[in-house]
């Protein structure tokens, strides 16, 4: 009994039930596949330039830039896991198309504080981005998102309909509103989504379990396990450069604790389909032909009610399309800009 009390105190838990929930979330992250050797990870090059903008309330919003200074501006909404880190191939493709990526860090991510963790979180962040665009002298531009990050682009388009010309999304997620849609999503992605949707009180325990395992040095296991259902993504994540980027992005994601990932998960399972109902600008949702996270057919069927949304499949790509086929993603962006 005394050992249990000490353990609860060390983990900042209030009951044995919470301890069980914490372990249950931790146990979902199993070991790496057998035979996986420790990689020789090259150092990450960070060629982007970071700037910190001061919000109206004085809190910081960090923005990174990459690409020619005279290039066409593109507002980039980075994935929570992956962040703004770019591979050498991505950098080459961006420069070759003369694009200038403006990459605001998401709320709570790295140097950006979460100015409003409440119900107005999306609107507050959208207002901040409008001020950033004004400060940069950008009247209008295209937006590029990855996975669920384009929710923020939708919020910006709703707040100021004329600021974005279009939104292109790689590995596009869609609002999950039914049990059948949840079944189409990969198991590793489904677990946190189901926890967030149906037992939201346990989200913090799940995220803290993930963070505890990452802090214990099992980030390699978490990354490889997450993509085990997709051979093409497994091959991509095992490449030394992408593994290096992924590991550093995890550090950035949890740099300010577990609250930012918790808020992001809650946003992903919120009623953000209401934003789709209110936005009329062109959207192009790209999904890989081998995507097990959000399969193209499921995305296409889900978006059929929206005439302004085009759903396209990209060959030789999975959930990590932004890293596997960056040229195809950027070509689609340029084709409609």
Plain-language structure description:
Strands 1-2-4-3-5-6-7-8 form an eight-stranded mixed sheet, with helices on both faces. The protein has helices at residues 2-10, 16-27, 88-96, 121-136, 150-159, 179-184, 187-198, 203-215, 219-226, 231-237, 240-253, 259-268, 273-278, 296-302, 321-324, 326-336; strands at 49-54, 60-66, 72-77, 99-104, 141-146, 164-170, 283-288, 309-314. By secondary structure, it is of the alpha/beta class. The model is unreliable at 28-47 (pLDDT under 50). Helix 2 packs across helix 8. Strand 3 (72-77), helix 3 (88-96) and strand 4 (99-104) form a beta-alpha-beta unit. The chain is built from 16 helices and eight strands.
